[in-house]
Design brief:
60% of the residues lie in helices and 4% in strands. It is mainly α and 154 residues long. A two-stranded antiparallel ribbon has the order 1-2. Strand 1 and strand 2 form a beta hairpin. Helix 5 packs across helix 7. The longest helix has 28 residues. The two termini are 44 Å apart. 5% of the residues are buried.
């Protein structure tokens, strides 16, 4: 029922394939899948888990294509671990609070400018120098110390 609420009813936008999985019926008549989905999928409460994409419904062709691209181009470069929830002392928080605000302001400003006007290639070295001058290495040092402490106590 969740698959039908999300993508539309069996026989209209989905059909059972030979393996018993719901598969998207190609759109005909010049419309798009999104247009059909808006017309026929009621929405509402639903849950679709990762396991459902192995046992109930196949990903939409566009989603399957994106998943393949992620697997090919991005997954090989992902980090093995995420940064853990470390505890910072009051002193550490005081050291980085102002610097982090300045760093965030600079990053947000530059990203916005580069999206709208371009110029990242010409400004990159100056941007990195500016980050270093406002204290980014100190932030890295504080977080590295907290991470090392986390590992010692793990």
């Amino acid at each position: 029922m969740s698959a039908q609420a999300n993508w539309g009813p069996v026989g209209v936008s989905q059909e059972l394939n030979d393996q018993g999985m719901l598969e998207q019926i190609p759109v005909t008549g010049g419309g798009t899948e999104q247009e059909r989905r808006v017309k026929v999928a009621p929405g509402g409460p639903k849950i679709i888990t990762a396991e459902d994409f192995e046992t109930v419904v196949l990903p939409e062709p566009r989603a399957a294509e994106r998943q393949a691209q992620i697997s090919e181009f991005y997954a090989p470069h992902r980090a093995n671990e995420k940064y853990p929830p470390v505890m910072l002392s009051v002193e550490e928080l005081n050291r980085i609070s102002t610097i982090e605000a300045d760093v965030k302001t600079l990053v947000d400003e530059k990203v916005s400018t580069w999206i709208v006007k371009g110029g990242i290639e010409d400004e990159w070295d100056g941007y990195v120098a500016q980050l270093e001058s406002i204290g980014l290495p100190e932030i890295v040092e504080v977080y590295q110390t907290a991470y090392d402490r986390f590992l010692e106590n793990a």
